[in-house]
């Protein structure tokens, strides 16, 4: 396929996904949740919660992971990727908020937890943390905008108060990334023993850190392709090592937990749970083994494949906990309706699109230390910029 | 003094008067077709279920420490001192976590509505706290469903089992289940044979999430100290450089 054709293909796909999702949105808000989902009293949560919200928050974990690595641990080598990670996180959280609007029965009341308190509720805590953390991400994202606009003074002021903001962001993330696992602690008899565990919050937290790293590698690769930048390859290699270790820690914990709970014996039971479990573990173990091999770490293509496999493994785990692991006890079989899939696809596509735009128009792939130039730069290459943003 | 419902399935003849009384109370339609639906939904808050010659009732169990009330982020569901678990639709934002969390799959949703509400039995909270009885108790001509004080009903249930050991399976469903419920059930056979979930744990569910949630304040404090400390250690070089620049 030549370049022009490829551009048309992507542009066309994006337009179709968006148009279908527009119709799905109409169905959702005009006819209600019953008409737009395959949810039921027996199965009240589907992929809008399981994928859009749970995976969305996890896939946006690079923001706090990289912020901690660079600003708390002071590992300067990672500076080059901290901005794309923060941008992804900010976009991710905005998309999660939009997705939540689709899933809530009465979305115009989304602010209720802020004034109607129930401190015993995990969802209450998650609501607060996500709200606060999205504000923190906005502040972490702001320097890119200020730089672009050449607002030196504001940029400097913000820089001076950034440390407490970053620490707050890491704490808020630690709380709600783990709390998303705690959400399912109340289901000891509903959630299949391969996934129900008192360790859920810890497993969610560790897998979120791994996913934050994986997403950062994933973005670096895509940006390098899209913008013709040199892939920060030594840095990516470094991250690949870290990722391998985090996956190893995660899988060790996962299996120790299964062993101590005696849940491994359920693998003898017929049913599709064991295959889904196998899929989840393979999708995480294979990339881990790949990353431990030097041959993989020398090959950008192989790193990319491993990263995508791991991200799929992460998504499989989250969906097993929130959707498939609950089927057996619910007594019904849930398959998402076309409207659910359409909205979810549109979220992902829109995320890619906005990231691409932001990466082009803002100083995302530049070192943090950039002092803004005190005048608004003129985009002489506006036409070229537009064509890039469109994916030419 | 908390109130409870005792449902003795050995006395139930499956006449469905309780269903009709409940529908009337909620101003819901009731007809042959709805009577035949043996499951609860947003238009049928209690149901009789048929198991061959035997019958059982499904309604909200009104747990002593309800999972639904503990997980609701806006406290739309509340356990009242009188016993009923009540729902405030003005608070609800429709996250449906209560439906996910309920070990008995009780809360239902108005899936077809544009602005849906959760629906469930509320143990006639307009009457019971004042000493009245529920509509289903009132409608039952066989004494299969009665309303009373929880401890007195447990004593009564024990007495029935002791008096007629042949007629009863020797256990009261709802005394231990999820830490105790305000609906108590008697049966002639093991409870799972007439549609009751016997796999539920014997302790209150909210403790499970609280185990994790209680650490939140400590994580905030410890996290701040730890990260501030790591930052201070890891930025020593910059600090030294700044000092040397000044001297």
Q: Which band does the percent of strand residues of chain A land in? A: under 5%
Q: How is the largest sheet of chain B built, in terms of strand order?
A: 8-1-9
* Low-confidence runs of at least 5 consecutive residues of chain A: 367-385
The CA-CA distance between the termini of chain A, in Å, is 13 Å
Instruction: Tell me the domain tally of chain B.
Output: 2
Q: N-to-C SSE series of chain A?
A: HHHHHHHHHHHHHHHHH
Bulk shape of chain B = elongated
Our estimate of the beta-strand percent of chain B is 5-15%
Based on the model shown, name its key terms.
heterodimer, A: 392 residues, mainly alpha, 2 domains, 0% strand, globular, B: 247 residues, alpha+beta, Alpha-Beta Plaits, three-stranded mixed beta sheet, two-stranded antiparallel sheet, 9 strands, 33% helix, 4Fe-4S (chain B), metal-binding (chain B), 4Fe4S_Fe_S_CS (chain B), FDH_Electron_Transfer_Unit (chain B), iron (chain B)
What does this structure look like?
The complex is a heterodimer of chains A (392) and B (247). Chain A contains 17 helices and no strands. Chain A is globular. By secondary structure, chain A is mainly alpha-helical. Residues 367-385 of chain A have low confidence and may be disordered. Chain A has two domains: 47-183 and 356-365; 188-334, no CATH class. Chain B is α+β, with helices and mostly antiparallel strands and 247 residues long. Chain B has two domains: 3-203, 2-Layer Sandwich (Alpha-Beta Plaits); 206-246. Chain B is 33% helix and 14% strand. Chain B has helices at 17-25, 32-36, 67-71, 97-101, 135-139, 150-163, 206-213, 216-234, 236-246, and strands spanning 3-8, 47-51, 54-58, 77-79, 85-87, 108-109, 118-119, 145-149, 183-186. In chain B, strands 8-1-9 form a three-stranded mixed sheet. In chain B, a hairpin with an 8-residue loop joins strand 6 (108-109) and strand 7. Chain B is elongated and about 95 Å long. The chains are: A mainly alpha (392), B alpha+beta (247). Chains A and B meet through helix 1, helix 2, helix 4, helix 7 and helix 9 of A and helix 3, helix 4, strand 6, helix 7 and helix 8 of B. Chain A: It is found in: Cell membrane. Chain A: It is a multi-pass membrane protein. Chain A: This is Ni/Fe-hydrogenase cytochrome b subunit. Chain A: One of its GO terms (biological process) is anaerobic respiration. Chain A: InterPro entries: FDH_cytochrome_b556_subunit (IPR051817), NrfD-like (IPR005614). Chain B: Its main location: other.
